[in-house]
Amino acid sequence: MTLDDYLSEKQISNYRFAQLLGKSQAFVGYIRKGTCDPSIETCRKIMEITNGAVTPNDFANDRR
User: Fold this and answer.
1) Which pLDDT belongs to residue 62?
2) Other Cβ atoms closer than 10 A to 50
3) How many CB atoms lie within 10 A of CB 26?
4) CA angle 14, 54, 32 (to 5 degrees)
5) For the residues of the chain, what is the DSSP string, one character each?
6) Which residues neighbour 58 within 8 Å (Cβ) at sequence distance 6 or greater?
7) For residue 17, what are the domain limits?
8) pLDDT tens per residue, the chain (64 residues)?
9) How many domains, in total, are found in the chain?
């Protein structure tokens, strides 16, 4: 599942997810749009926050 799909489905704003992630709201927006690839460490944190719904492989498979 893409991060965009997850946040849309759960109705979580970029701002709120950025707070949980410890990153900026803009950074979360870039990840959602696919214009920025998160580091492995950030991917792991995203996987933790989403309880495994979004994995590092989801970013590799979401090339636009």
Assistant:
1) 54
2) 19
3) 11
4) 35
5) --HHHHHHHHT--HHHHHHHHTS-HHHHHHHHHTSSPPPHHHHHHHHHHTTTSS-HHHHHT---
6) 1, 2, 3
7) 3-60
8) 999 999 999 999 999 999 999 999 999 999 998 888 899 999 999 999 999 999 988 887 655 4
9) 1
CATH number at residue 8: 1.10.260
Q: Which two tokens stand for residue 12?
A: 């979580």
Most distant CA atoms of the chain, gap in Å: 26
Phi, psi for 13 (deg, rounded to 5)? -75, 160
Other beta carbons within 10 angstroms of residue 32's beta carbon come to 19
Amino acid, res. 27: F
Q: Are 1 and 58 in contact (CB under 8 A)?
A: yes
